[in-house]
Amino acid sequence: MTVAATRSDPETEGNSLDRDSRSPLLEVRDLKVHFPVKKGFIIQRKVGVIKAVDGVNLSLYRGETLGLVGESGSGKTTIGRAILKLEDATAGEILIDGQDITQSRGLQLRQMRRRIGMVFQDPFGSLNPRMSAGNLIGEPLKIHGLTSTKSEYRRRVAELLRLVGLNPTMAGRYPHEFSGGQRQRIGVARALAAKPDLMVLDEPVSALDVSIQAQVINLIKDLQEQFGLAYIFIAHDLSVVRNISDRVAVMYLGKIVETGSIDELYNSPQHPYTKALLSAVPTADPELERKRSRIVLEGDIPSPLNPPSGCVFRTRCPIAIEECSNEVPELRLVRGTQRAACIRGDWYNRSTRERSPASGEK
Amino acid sequence: MTAETLLDVKNLSTHFRTRLGVIKAVDNVSFVLHEGETLGLVGESGCGKSVTALSIMRLVPSPPGRIVAGKIIFRGQDLLTMSEQEVRNVRGRDIGMIFQEPMTSLNPVLTIGRQLREPLELHLGMTKNQALRKSTELLQLVGMPDPETRLNSFPHQISGGQRQRVMIAMALSCEPTLLIADEATSALDVTIQAQILEIIKDLTDRIGTAVIIITHNLGVVARYADTVNVMYAGRIRETGSLDSVYKDPKHPYTVGLLNSVPTLDLDADARLEPIRGEIPNLADLPPGCAFVDRCDYAVQRCQEEDPELVEVGDLHYGACWEHERVARNLPGVTV
User: Does residue B198 belong to the interface with chain A, where contact is any CB pair within 8 Å?
Assistant: First the structure.
């Protein structure tokens, strides 16, 4: 691994106790989002079900950032969409300040949505090309009736533009007149307009060039500090997630396989998938790259239509044993706030002599 | 290692004629690639890295694009003076190419096997049966599960990672001396990206193929390249060995790029130092250095004169008037 393992100290544990005494802003309890797969032309038969999210628990506190990482098909985006109720939960609860939103409708739903902002990945597809930047940013203000006079509306739009580093004189321009980075800034301003408590950021920087990416990351961090926002930061780029998050949850095929604070998870990952994921990220340091050991996983992510029995990762896992196909591993406490779902959890902490079969590391 | 020069690009300029004016996508680019060497071509969108590759393959869409000047000497022969037929014999046989999007670069109505056989029959004169056998072997080499059945599959029936494996098998089927990988793994998940990059490295090492890796990912270059060209707005701004460019950058753009990338061991509270401003409009570049508006080291001279590449270290070249200040990390002192 890149970084020497540092044990989490009692201090962080103290913090987590302290944190538990406050109530979380967002709590996701045993969330399941399943999509039916249908076949047939006139009479549609249900032929299977895709378990995009399958029993996920999360909590998020005010001012905190939770990174949600995983590869395509892991279910990270579906969780984000379910929190905004853009996707209906099949089972489970999503609590905002203790209130379940999975059943809310109409006015109640609209009021709830005001408190959650969302920034999407594609700065080209997520903005209506026929609306000016000012109208795009002002739309949430109108929908939620947050400004009473025209001048107040204009002032607020100008303020939002300034907040994300754009010039208020740009309000009359249309999306195609902006660069990718500027468009993503408009997306952020739009999500901020209704003064949310929580923002779901779905791959907000992955479509941007490196130099612009860093600008937007810094903007997102500054806004959090300024307004005490809570973030769900969905990304596949582990280095970006490390830079912005307080805690991380690693997902694979609809399940969380490991979760913990940034330091715990990046310094001593416990789940073989987290380990492989971290070692697969190339870093921009030639010297470090030459020293690093690499775990190259074999094969592709299995089809979510027909996931493996037991542990979903076992088909690509370098340390899988027969028992892995029998039981679905629970998230178990490793240390501090770190939890991993692996029955071979202590494998990497054993001495090399104790590891009899090939470990799979190259 | 005294490797021979394989590819010598001299003063290459490729322009595009658009409604906004002439865009100099590649502007006076020169570099040398030795046999068996791996070159990383890095830069952000619009910097000209892909057009450089297309120019080498003579695949620049024309119109609107046109190679207006330069030489591309490949094994002693200028590719730019060759006839279309001669180029076709080189392309696919001596130079292989892997593109970013495997779905659009594979023909959707032909089976994998049919597409793999084509270069083998065309370039190496194999019979259908020989080509079939070789195709199965190739798929095995790139780690494709169940290669015999896969030969009869269509591109949409396999995953993105597997499609990229097919592309690699196809690009390497005639054992080329040069492989160009244009953002070959950018659309893939990290664990699949790692698999594909390892396969490319493994196979090209075995055949002794030189590789040009074109990417925006500085990490991929750090892992696989021997030498690096950093491009910005159509020109190479810095070039040298991997270590000299990464450890001792002499161009403010390289410095900015390296500071913009979050790394796994970066302190969580550490702030990234992005490059300010935006990538300039290529149709309307400033008269001096194209990076001047975003540069912390800029002086009056940078507004007026465009710097050429000069030697800034051992086999290390940078195009910056103020490279000494960049090396000593002294931004903004004389402005």
Answer: yes
Looking at chain B, which residues constitute the CATH 3.40.50.300 domain(s)? 5-225
Cβ–Cβ < 8 Å for A96, A115: yes
A362 CA to chain B: closest CA distance, Å? 11
Q: What is the pTM of this model?
A: 0.84
B233 secondary structure, DSSP code: T
Q: Which residues contact A93 (CB under 8 A, 6 or more apart)?
A: A27, A28, A29, A30, A31, A100, A102
CA of residue A361 relative to chain centroid, distance = 28
ipTM: 0.82
Rg of chain A over Cα atoms, rounded to whole angstroms, equals 22
Architecture per CATH, domain B5-225, reads as 3-Layer(aba) Sandwich (3.40)
Contact residues, A window 307-346, toward B, CB-based 8 Å cutoff: 316
Neighbours of B146 (CB within 10 A): 10
* Minimum-distance CB partner of A211 among B195, B256, B268: B256
Interface of B with A in 39-58 (CB under 8 A): 44-45
Digit-by-digit pLDDT tens for chain A (362 residues) are 334 444 334 444 444 444 445 789 999 999 999 998 888 777 788 888 889 999 999 999 999 999 999 988 889 999 999 999 999 999 999 999 888 988 888 888 888 889 999 998 887 788 999 999 999 999 999 999 888 899 999 999 999 999 999 999 999 999 998 888 899 999 999 999 999 999 999 999 988 888 888 999 999 999 999 999 999 999 988 889 999 999 999 999 999 999 999 999 999 999 999 999 998 888 888 888 888 878 888 888 888 888 899 999 999 999 999 989 998 999 999 889 999 999 887 666 665 555 544 444 43
Are A287 and B243 inside 8 Å of each other by CB? yes
| Residue in B closest to A289 by C-alpha | B223
Does the beta carbon of A214 lie under 8 angstroms from any beta carbon of chain B?
yes
